[in-house]
Amino acid sequence: MTTHDKTARETAPPAAPTRTILAAGRLTAWRGVDLITAAMLAVAFGVVFWGFDTFVYPLVGAVTVGFPPAGELSLGVWLIPAVVGGLVIRRPGAALFTELVAANVELLLGNGWGVAVLLSGLLQGLGVEMVLALVRWRRFGAATAVLGGVASAILEIVGYEWWSYTADYSPTWRLVYLACGVVSGALIAGLGGSALVRALARSGALNAFPAGQEVRESRATR
Questions:
Q1: Which of 55, 111, 176, 196 could form a disulfide with 69 if both were Cys (CB 3.0 to 4.6 A apart)?
Q2: Distance between CA atoms of 193 and 106, rounded to whole angstroms?
Q3: pTM of the predicted structure, to 2 decimals
Q4: Per residue in 190-212, pLDDT tens?
Q5: Angle at the Cα of 83 (from 33 to 186), degrees rounded to 5?
């Protein structure tokens, strides 16, 4: 092997995992590290929510004032905790727990929607939980993350936002609003959340979790 080949091999990104690793032990038996990590992720996302609410969302409203349904393209930001929590912990309730705790942190820090963020957190978390239940907590790739983001967006919009934020919209605008939310859920929450989990796993931050083990195995096979 030449020096160039060795260097290229050392700097190449990790290969795709050869297998999906499931949560250790009984699926419903949360470990202490699961609970602590999910809580830490949730708190971090709650702070991000506050920052987004305070500094970014007003700009979104200003940019989309001519066509308000387009503002829902930002929805995916609020769905990421559920996707990331589900992909990292890989146990029933992880997506819902992470999203709800993040919503509580957002509420405590202050936001423009008040306690309504708790209902949103419930619906958003349940959307991802539904998809993970559908795959029986056995698939955690990008496709599952995208489906989770989409389901989360649909449940949030159809179950709540259609009847609150868009009550005066025409049927066409409501459908466009839903489409924008679905796209955002798929791209920002789904692909973005999946990419974030992979980045955390490559950094070593998830060594205690299946995602970290998958990265170690993929590196070992290079």
A1: 176
A2: 19
A3: 0.91
A4: 999 999 999 999 999 999 999 99
A5: 165
